[in-house]
Amino acid sequence: MLPRSIAALVGVVGLLGAGLALTPSTARADGSTLYVNNLSTSNCSDSAADAGSQTQPYCSLQTAVDAAQPGDTVMVVRGNYGQLDVKTSGTASAPVTITTSTNTHQLLAQIVTPQSGSGPGLTLDHVHDVAVHGFFIGTNAKAPVVAVAGSNNVTLDGDRFQGPYSTALVGIDGQSSTATLSRDEMDPEPGEDAVDIASGASGTVITGSEFYYGKKIPVNAAGAPGTVVVGNTFTDDGGCNTAISLTGASSGSTIENNAFFLGAPGGCARYGTSTPVVVSSGSTSGTTYDYNVIASESGGPLYSWGGQTYSTAADLQAATGQGKHERYVAVAADATGVNIGPLIDSADADAPDELSTDFNRKPRVDDPLVADSGTGPGYYDRGATEYQDPYQVVPAVSVSKGPAPLSETITANETNPWKTQITGYTFNFGDGSAPVVSATPSVTHTYTAIGSYPVTVTATTAAGATVAGSRKTYVDVAAEAPLVPALSLSQAYPYSSLTVQADASKTTDDWSIADYSVDYGDGTSAADLGTSGFGAHTYPKPGTYTATLTVKDDGGNTSTTTQQVTVGSAFVPFGPTRILDTRNGTGAAQAKVGPGAVLRLKIAGVKGIPSTGITAVTLNLTGVNASTGTVITAYPDGSTRPTASNLNLVPGQVTPNLITVPVAADGYVDLYNHSGSVDLVGDVEGYYSTTAAVTLGGAGLVQTTGPTRVLDTRNGTGTDTVKGRVGPGGLVTFTLPNGNYANASAVLLNVTETDATASSWVGLEPSSGGVPTSSVLDFTAGQTSADLVVAPVSSGQVQLYNRYGSVDLIADLEGYVVSDVSTSPSAVGSPYFPISPTRVLDTRNGTGVAQGTLGAKSKLNVKVAGSGGIPAGVKAVLVNLTGVKPTTGTWLSAYADGSALPSASNLNLAAGAVRANLALVPVGSDGSIDIYNNSGSVNVVADIEGYYTG
C-alpha cells in the first residue's frame, strides 16, 4: 500500500533540482534521444545549443517534450519535474516516447502537480502516438492525476499513480480512443475511482496492472465500447467492493484473466459488500467475460450481468454462456493469505492485449508442478503477476565463528521445487580473495585474518541464467579466547510465575556455539536450546532450584555453569470484592461468629476468583460490633491453628485489617474467633497464584519500595485537587511519583485516616463511578487508624473515596505489582511464598527480643530470615504488626535494618489501644527488620504472613 500523501515524496525529491528556471527553447539535440536531468550536478540547460544531449540535458521536462518530434525518446533521470502537458504527437510508426531509465516500479522520476497548483499531474492534450513510461505521477489538486483529452493511440506503461485529493487516477474523456494502460500501479483513495472512462471513449485497454482500492470502483466505464480489461490484479483494501463496472453502452468489451482479492481478513463484514463485476444490459452485446479468479470471504452474488445477479460461476454460465473457465476461492474471515494455485497456468493467452511479460516484466513461465489448463501455450497465469521459478540458494558455512586460521566448508543450500538444472556455483568469500566457480555445491576456504566476512553464492542454470543468493552469510574470525558459559534465569512474560526464561546469550567463546542445553534442576530431562541459547521452562511447584547450563562449541570444547533461581506465586489485583458478610449471610451463615468458633470461608472459585492455582488470598477482614475484646486468627483450612493473630478487636468498634493467608488445597481458609461473638466482613483485594499469566495490567511480581509518602491531604502532598479534608462522597485523586511504579497494575498503600468528623469508610473509586461496593478502611469519628490497601493504578493515578463526614487521608507507598518487565526492566519484582502466620516478635513474653516494652524514640531489631521456616536471602516480608496498650498516643514504623528511619508510619495507636496493621517491609542485608516507636512505651507483636525472595 502506498502512502496516502505524496507531499513528502515530492518535497524530498524536489531538493534534487526542482524549482530551476524554465526557459523556453527551440534548441534540440542531434539524434532521436532527448535527455532530461534537473540534478544540480547535471549541467542542464533549456536554452543551450546542445540542450537535450547527454552532456547538457534539459532541465525542464516540459521543454524537452515540447521540442520532441515523431520518433524521439525523451529520457528522464530522477527528479521532480512538476506538471506535464503533452501537446506533441508522434506517428504510428514513429511514436514519441517519454521514459525513465528504470524498468522497475521504483519510479524515481516524478510528474506531480505541486500543493499550490491545480489540475492534473499529466495531461495528454489532443495528441496521438505518445507513450509515457516509468514515472510516479500524482496531483495534490482536486483533478484527475492523468487526464486523457481528445487523444488516441496513447500508452501509460509501468507508471505509478497516486492523488490524495484527486477525482480519479486516470480520466479518459469521451473524445479519446485506443488508450492503453499497461503494467501500471494504481492506488486510489477510498473516495475515488482508479480509471474513469467516459461515454464515447472507445478501445481503452487496461492490461497487466495492479489496483489497490477501497469503496469506489477501480475500472468504471460508462458508455465506452470495446473496453479491454485483461490480466490485472484487483486487491480491495477495505471490503468486497465492485472492481469493474461496464455501464451504458459499453458493448464489445472483454474482461478476462483478472484476479480479484477481496475482503481478507474480515474486511467484507467491516467495510461492505457489493458484486465484484457489473456488466449492464446495454453492455452485454459482444462482451466476453471469462478466465477470471475471485477470492473472497463474501457470501453475496459474485456477478451482475445484464441486470441479473448470479451467486456462482455455474449460475452465470447456465444463464448467459459466460464464465466457462471462472474460478472462485472462498476465503475465511480470519485468513492471513490467499491460495494462488488457481491463478497458475490457467489463463487465456489468446485474450486480446494479454502481455507476454507480466507486471514486473518477467517472462511467462510454465510451472512444472501445475497442470496447464489455459489456452494457447497453456501456462500463462491469471492476474498481473506471473509466478516465477521459486529456486533459491543461500550459502551455509560449517562454522560461523572460529580462531584463525579458520578452514571453512561453504555449501550452497538450495530450494528447488521445480527441479531446475543448475550447472555451476560461484562462491565469493568476502575476504578479498578471488571468487571460486564450482560444478558442485560445496567448496572449502581458509580464512587467515581476524575479521567478519560476508559470504555469497550465485547459481547458474542450464539455460545460462544466474540466480543470486537471497542473502549473505557471515564468517567471523576471532582472536583466541576460552569458552566461558553464562546463564541467566528470569520471569518469562506473559506466562505463570513458575515459568522462567533461560538466556545463555552472554556466553563468550572464540568459536561459534554448537549447542546449549539446560538441566533446570527439577528432575525433568535437560532441555536442548539449540544454538539460540534461549528457552522457557515451567517448574512444577514453587521453590528454589539450581539449573545447569552445558555449552558445546564448534571447536569441540565443552563447559558448564550453574545458576540458582527461585519461583513462587504472582500477585493478581482483584476487586475489592466482598465475599464474606455474616450480617447478611454473604459467604457464610447469617450469624455472628461465636467464642472459639471457626468460620470456613471458600476462596477458590468464588466471584471470579479461579478455582485452581490459588496459593494465598489478600483479604480486608473487618470485625464489626464484637461483644467483648477478642482476636481473629486466619489460617489454611484443615491445618493446625497458629498462635498468631490477624485482627484485634475491642467491644463495639468496627476494625479492619488487611490479611494475606494461605489457601488450603480445598480452596478454603479458616477464621477463628477467640472470645465473645462478632460479625466478620471480608473483601478480597487480590490473590496469589502459580497459574495466572504475568502480563501487562494484570498479574505480576511484587517489588518492595519501602514506605514513601505519596498523599497527605493535610498539606496537599501528592495532589493539587484536594488540600484539606475529603468531604462526604468526596474523591481524592493523586499521581504516583515518576518511577517504575507509575507503570504498575496496582500499588500497596498504607492508607491512614485522621481527624474524621463522622464515622465513615474509605473505598477505591470504581471505574464506573458512583459509590464503591466495598470498603478498604473503616473508622469512627476522632479516630486515627490505618490499613494496608491494594489499589489499582490507572494512568499512573490512584483514587480514594470517603463516604461520610470529612477526613484527612494519608497514603504511604510500600510496594507495587510489576506486571510487565518491559515497563520496569530494572525492577522485575519477587515471587511470593505464603506461610501460616508465624510469630517472630512479642515483647510481652520475650519472643524474638528481651522481654519488655519498646520505649519512646527507640527501635527493635527483629531477625526474620532463618526464623519460622523463612529462608535466608529474603527480600521482603508481610508482617502483621500489632501495638499493645501504649502509654500514650504513638505510631510505629517498620523498615529494613540498616536503612534510615522513613518519614512514614505503619501503625497509629491511641493510648491503651490494641491494634494491628499489615505491612510490606523490606529486609536488611543481615536478614533483619527494625521496628520504631515514636512516643511513650508500648508492647509490640509481629507475625509473618509470607515472604518475597528471588
TrEMBL record:
Pfam families: Beta_helix, PKD_4. SMART domains: PKD. Residues 1-29 form the signal peptide. It comes from the Bacteria. Coiled coil: none annotated. Residues 425-477, 516-567 form the PKD domain. Residues 347-356 have a biased composition (Acidic residues). Residues 345-384 are annotated as: Disordered. Keywords: Signal. This is PKD domain-containing protein. The lineage of its organism: Bacteria, Bacillati, Actinomycetota, Actinomycetes, Kitasatosporales.
